[in-house]
Specification:
InterPro entries: EgtD, EgtD_Methyltrsf_superfamily, MeTrfase_dom, MeTrfase_EgtD-like, SAM-dependent_MTases_sf. The chain has 320 residues and is an alpha/beta fold. The protein has helices spanning 14-28, 42-53, 58-78, 95-99, 116-129, 171-184, 200-206, 213-229, 288-297; strands at 32-33, 82-87, 107-113, 134-135, 138-139, 156-161, 189-195, 238-245, 250-257, 261-265, 268-272, 277-284, 301-307, 313-319. The strands form 3 sheets. Strands 2, 3, 4, 5, 6, 7, 13 and 14 form an 8-stranded mixed beta sheet that branches. The chain binds N,N-dimethyl-L-histidine.
């Protein structure tokens, strides 16, 4: 170790600097609010995988069942020759159900994700299981302008955005993403998973699981702030808070101060009153009609819809 370097100081990196700047901004605004993207370090991603398996968290298994049952019908909307673009590709689990329903030599698969190492590792696994599939990963933030590989003549470009991830966007972000997608998918379409408005108790339970995994996922933002940025705050100072806000048709997740406290970050001190929160996520719930109207404003025409028997989740085909 170089003399003068303190091993207890968090490492500076471009990512840390961005996190620090965003956290300072989050704590300075009123009400305090930060982007949900800071959930997803390695621990947060592992906790999210666990959430997907929880008995209370219905979206993942409901969407998987829809894909399992209707993959052939979904793939039939795409056309014979397809460039399949998965937005925010992650572990590439759900797309396998679509690929199983398509002739592989008719597909060029383009998974897009901001995390290069994870994307490439997932592509290696997919290539091993689907020999002969053309895979062209793109490391990019899919919500910002990016360049997809060209589509050959006679090939339709089809987007795939499962998981109700669009629910974590603000309405303005959802609109911006849909406009960008409608533009780059013109002549093809988008297959998208959305979580539907439903009984408030079902929603409440899904984000307040008995095992406390969602609480740990939420609190991980503060763990990261402590470990990566050296933030100081009382270890038991914040509690997980998640509730359905019917005015906005969304679950809101917050970190709530249990008592008046101070959070110190890089020489600044941010005060929290008892009960005050740092808003960490919203998860919008839609009606099928409401989402189709949103998509229509962005340039899509509504197509087929697949829902489960409870009407809890929907997969929509939208023509671009
Ligand atoms: C990733 N996203 C769709 C999840 C959701 O349901 O909004 C994230 C999540 N937050 C708490 N539990 C799951």
């Amino acid at each position: 170790m170089k003399p003068g370097l303190d091993w207890r100081q968090p490492r500076a990196s471009a990512e840390n600097e961005q996190f620090a700047a965003d956290l300072h901004a989050a704590l300075s605004r009123s009400p305090k609010a930060i982007s949900p993207k800071y959930f997803y370090d390695e621990t947060g991603s592992r906790l999210f995988e666990q959430i997907c398996e929880l008995p209370e968290y219905y979206p993942t298994r409901t969407e998987l069942a829809l894909l399992q049952t209707h993959a052939r019908d979904m793939a039939a909307q795409f056309g014979p020759q397809v460039q399949l673009v998965e937005y925010g590709a992650g572990a590439l689990r759900k797309v396998r159900l679509l690929l199983d329903a398509m002739p592989l030599d008719a597909v060029q698969f383009v998974p897009v994700d901001i995390s290069g190492p994870h994307l490439l590792a997932a592509c290696d696994g997919l290539a091993a299981d689907y020999p002969g599939l053309a895979i062209q990963p793109l490391v990019a933030d899919f919500t910002r302008p990016h360049t997809l590989p060209p589509c050959s003549a006679g090939t339709r470009r089809v987007g795939f955005f499962p998981g109700s991830s669009i629910g974590n966007f603000t309405p303005a972000e959802a609109d911006a993403f849909l406009r960008l997608a409608a533009n780059e998918l013109a002549g093809g379409g988008l297959l998208i998973g959305i979580d539907l408005v439903k009984d408030h108790d079902v929603l409440h339970a899904a984000y307040n699981d008995a095992a406390g995994v969602t609480a740990a996922f939420n609190l991980n933002v503060l763990t990261r702030a402590r470990d990566e940025l050296g933030a100081e705050f009382p270890a038991d100072g914040f509690a997980h808070l998640a509730f359905y806000n019917p005015a906005y048709c969304r679950i809101e997740m917050h970190l709530q101060a249990r008592r008046p406290l101070a959070l110190r970050l890089g020489g600044e001190t941010y005060g929290f009153n008892e009960g005050e929160t740092l808003h960490t996520e919203h998860s919008h719930k839609y009606t099928v009609d409401g989402f189709q109207a949103l998509a229509a404003r962005a340039g899509f025409r509504p197509g087929k819809v697949w829902t489960d028997e409870n009407g809890w989740f929907a997969v929509l085909w939208l023509e671009a």
